[in-house]
Every structure is written in C-alpha cells, then in structure tokens.
Design brief:
The protein is mainly beta and 402 residues long. The protein has four helices and 30 strands. A hairpin with a 5-residue loop joins strand 8 and strand 9. The longest helix has 11 residues. The N terminus and C terminus are likely disordered.
Length: 402
C-alpha cells in the first residue's frame, strides 16, 4: 500500500502516479477465497515492504497489519478491503502493535523510538511517548490499564499507563541481549519477556521485580512467546527450529523443564499463538510455512504453504476457523481451517497418533519414557525404574475396553 496520509474510506481519489493508482485500484477489489491449496485461503497485498505483524481484532471482524513501510492498516476480514490507514507519525519500521482490550484504541511501536496511541475508529493519534531505544515489541494488559514495550540496545522493558502513556516502571538491562518479545500474562500480574540471550523472564507487577528466570536451553535466539487464556503455560519459539511449553503457573518447569514441540518446521520459528480454548497452537517460520499443533498430543497436524518469504507473525480467530499469517513478502494470508479435520493428511496423522507412542517425562528422575497412546496414562507419571523402586505407589491400569 502506498505510504501516504489518506483515509481509505474517502471517496476522493488519492494523488500520485499511475503506478500508485493501479495499485490502489487492484486493492480496491479486495480478495477472494482461493481453493487451490489444502484449505481455502485469501491473500491480501497488504504493504509495500515486510509485514511485521498481523492479527485479528474487534471480534475477529477486522485485521490489523503493521509494516516496515512505517504504516499500520485496518482491514475488513470479509472483503479484505482497507478501512483505515495509520501513517505519517512513524518514520521507521513499525515493529508491532497492541489493541487495548474493551476499547477502540491501539498502540504502535517503532524503530523510531516512538510508542503511539491511536483511536482506531477515527485514525487520530491520542498521545506519543518517546522511549530511549529502538522499540522491538509491545503488549497490552488484559484489563486494558497497562502497556509494556521493549527497547534496544538498553534491553529494557517500560510499563506505562495505557490512557496517558505515562511511564510507571522502567527496568533497564532486563536481559543481556535484545528483547524479542514482551507479553502480559492473562491475569495482568506479570510480564513475560524472551530474548536473544535465550532466557525467559517473568517480571512481577506487584513485587516490582523478576520472580522467574529460566534458561530455556533453546539452541538459538528465543524469538517469540505467547500465553493461552488460562495462563498456565508459556510457549516459546526459537531460531533453533523448535517450540517449547513451560508450565509457569504451577512451577512444573523447575523440575521438568520445557516440553519441546519438534518436527514442525525446517527453519527458524518466528511466531506462535494459542487458540482461545488452548487446544490448538499456530506457529510461523522462516521456512515460509504455518504449522498447526494439537495440544492434546503436542504433535503437528497440518502445514500451510504459500508465502514466498519469511513468515513473521500468526494469529487465530476465537472460533478456530480462521488463521492469519504475515510475511516478509508484503502479504497477509487468511486461511479457513473450519474443515481441517476432513483433510486426508490430518485424518492420517490422527490415526497414526492414536495407535502410536507418547513420550512422557518422569516426575521423579526427570527422564523421558514411552507409553502407548491407547493406554490410560493418568497415573503414569513416573518411568518404570522409579515405579519399581516403590511399587506400592503405582497401581496397574486395566486394559482399554474394545
């Protein structure tokens, strides 16, 4: 999209050269569902440069995207037509945005060191806050009161009042290297951050200090993280091509570490997002694919292909029927996964998983051990060696009824 300050709802034609007019005319037609792929997909030619983030918002009727072209655009999901262009304020790539819950406001952050609050309905700026460094990420608390952003090279997090932009807390040198993502937990009590230093930190908003610091044991940069709505797990994505799940609510990670999700991507994992019911995880990768993961088995069920460059962000609708992916190729794709379970590839994986082997981690010694997926395994929390040392604590389960 041309980087000009205009209202996409205006009936007046924008000024510019023939190339811009042709480009706007093409986008004015919106996008139709293509059925040449495994699932129906719409492709939106969203920006002239890399799309850094794209997510469904406002009851999943709209889509927001931000780009290295220094703009953010609000799209109508049904027609894939632009409804509002937010431009003229940032002078460098917009790295991320956050919609303020229960409001018509959002904030954008950029390498120009600005955090900007917008009225999404009118397109007007509400306030601008200058930060010390290049802003790499931002998040809004679930109660809509707070914002957090991460700055580089200070490796800092800044917690602000969402209404005014006033800084409430600033933590410098929070990590030893660039903070790649910051996220409030669903209870608005802690801020999770991940970093190129491969560590995970949880900063407590009541204690005003870091209460959890985890060496992720990822083999490369931790690029992203996300919480499910219940806040029990934190998922981390890494350039080492894997994702991991951390039980941060009960503290299970202290004895078990993180549960690795492997085999889904051939390239660095850039993004991750849970469905509202936490039963599905979506991830995006520099291998240009989107992976869907079944959280009951921790197995990848479907791979979506079509982007021509790195995938930078993913999101999923509340009803689990629509997945979005943003890419460095300048496009956003909307994938209709409503009938995903009818795809032969998914059916085959379900059948294979049902008759296969599940790997658990022993609660006592921490080592991995296999059990049949057909076996009732609720009490199988320890490996055979630990069970043999204290057989009275283990009760043999009856075979499944056929």
């Amino acid at each position: 999209m041309a980087s000009i300050n205009m209202d996409p709802l205006s009936v007046d034609e924008p000024t510019g050269g023939e190339e811009e007019e042709e480009e706007e005319e093409e986008k004015g037609r919106g996008a139709e569902w293509s059925r040449d792929t495994q699932v129906p997909v719409k492709q939106v030619a969203a920006h002239r440069e890399a799309v850094n983030a794209a997510r469904l918002c406002f009851s999943d009727s709209f889509l927001l995207s931000c780009s290295s072209d220094a703009t953010t655009v609000l799209w109508d999901v049904e027609s894939c037509l632009p409804r509002r262009l937010f431009s003229g304020v940032h002078g460098k790539p917009v790295t991320e945005f956050a919609v303020i819950p229960n409001s018509n406001r959002m904030v954008t952050v950029s390498w120009d060191k600005k955090m900007v609050s917008w009225d999404v309905e009118t397109g007007q700026t509400l306030w601008t806050s200058m930060q010390a460094g290049l802003l790499t990420s931002c998040s809004a608390s679930a109660d809509g009161r707070l914002l957090v952003c991460a700055a580089d090279p200070q490796n800092s997090v800044n917690v602000s009042d969402a209404a005014s932009g006033r800084t409430l807390h600033q933590v410098n040198d929070h990590h030893r290297s660039t903070i790649t993502r910051c996220r409030f937990d669903p209870q608005s009590q802690r801020v999770a951050t991940v970093s190129a230093d491969r560590r995970i930190r949880l900063w407590d908003l009541l204690a005003l200090k870091t209460t959890v610091s985890i060496n992720s044991n990822h083999g490369n940069v931790v690029s992203n993280c996300c919480f499910p709505n219940n806040g029990r797990f934190l998922c981390t994505a890494s350039w080492d091509k894997t994702l991991k799940l951390w039980d941060v609510q009960t503290g299970g990670f202290r004895s078990h570490g993180g549960a690795a999700l492997q085999g889904g991507h051939e390239g660095s994992v850039s993004s991750c997002c849970f469905s509202a019911d936490a039963n599905l995880l979506v991830s995006g990768s520099y291998d240009r694919t989107v992976a869907l993961w079944d959280m009951s088995t921790l197995c990848q069920t479907l791979i979506l292909k079509g982007h021509s460059d790195w995938i930078t962000d993913v999101s999923i609708s509340a009803d689990r029927t629509l997945v979005t992916s943003a890419s460095k190729d300048g496009t956003v794709r909307l994938w209709n996964i409503k009938n995903m379970e009818e795809i032969p590839e998914v059916l085959e994986k379900r059948r294979t998983e049902g008759a296969g082997i599940h790997i658990l981690q022993c609660d006592e010694c921490g080592k991995a051990f296999p059990v049949s997926r057909l076996q009732t395994s609720e009490l199988l929390t320890r490996c055979v060696f630990c069970r043999l040392r204290s057989p009275s604590r283990y009760r043999l389960q009856p075979p499944p009824v056929i």
